[in-house]
Amino acid sequence: MSTPLMNHLAIIMDGNGRWAINQEKPRVFGHQVGAQTAKKIIDACVQKKIPYLTLYTFSKENWSRPKDEVETLMDLLSMMLEGELENMLRNNIRFNVVGKIEDLPKKTREFTLYTIEKTKNNTGLVLTLALSYGGRQEIIDAINSIIESGEKIINEDILKNHLYCPELPDPDLIIRTGGEYRLSNFLLWQSAYTEIYTSAKNWPEFDSEDLKKAFNEYENRNRTYGKV
Known about the structure:
Layout: E1 8-12, H1 16-22, H2 27-47, E2 52-59, H3 67-90, E3 94-99, H4 106-119, E4 126-133, H5 135-149, H6 156-160, E5 173-176, E6 195-198, H7 208-219
Parallel strand pairs: 1-2, 1-5, 2-4, 3-4, 5-6
Helix pairs in contact: 1-2, 2-3, 3-4
């Protein structure tokens, strides 16, 4: 079976803090540079006309990080959303979130919901940020939702339709930076047959050429989905 065109790309943006420490800078500096890297990769995906891009931005587990780092990350997210709204509208990007929006601080939550509303009619790239997200929690929430609906017998379609964003297609490729080889609770249900590509580069140093390398390797893979 040949490899189809890229429909949904997902990225685990790992290594911001380690990169900053290697530069003898505070961890927050790595997050700031990492945000600029995300902007460049989003623009590259727009140019490549990729329909869906999902970025693992802040996990449920990340709430356990030092309070000042979490607050800085939330402020940075708010600033990025405010600063990039015009660019999203100009590039026909529809903004989306997967995760527990209600967990976010009030200011960040308001910017998030406002950006979703302002871009909801755009028809280009669907940019999804995974915020306060955990794959296990998503599956648990889906099962509880199914129980509340009164369903007695569950199949894959029913469970999928109770996920946070059932309209999102399964990712074709997950890129993980930072030299790690795990999913870290990211899109566990959706990634059953997803191709995985790892980069030794930390996220702040990942660029469009690295993205091109990942795409080239993906295009040379043979996706059989368990078949011969």
